[in-house]
Amino acid sequence: MNAAATYEQDYSPEQAELAERIVGLEKDALNKWFKGDVSGYRELWSRKSFTYFDGDNPDRVEDHDTIDRFLDKLSGKLYADAYDFRNPRVQFGADTALLTFQLYADTNLIDMKYNCVELYQKEADGKWRVIHSTWSFIRPMDMDFSTAKEIV
Description:
- By secondary structure, the protein is an alpha+beta fold.
- The chain is 29% helix and 34% strand.
- Strands 2-1-6-5-4-3 form a six-stranded mixed beta sheet, with helices on one face.
- The relative contact order is 0.17.
């Protein structure tokens, strides 16, 4: 039995439905992302409470306004014909859901190989939004960054 089957068998019916919805929200944002449209993550990432770590930035992003400026720079500039969304797992807490997955994509700017962590929280309006996001390189010692292109 694989690890996914082990933890998924303990889901309640509500958790199984929510896990599917959380993965769907993430994939919807990624489908836009790789077409140069940053609006999926702009809407998914919480305006109320948000932090972000990225392998290319040594500091934590502390709020949605800061990530908005990053998204503005990236808007219309990142494209990929396809991506590989691997090993998603959703773990639950009280009004929280932790989605972890691996993302692989050969884009026009960089070949992406990320371990991704998205901490979702149910907000007052009943919508699930990401309050913390981490995108860290998978085995950065194996990556060749010499071919990465400047975003701006």
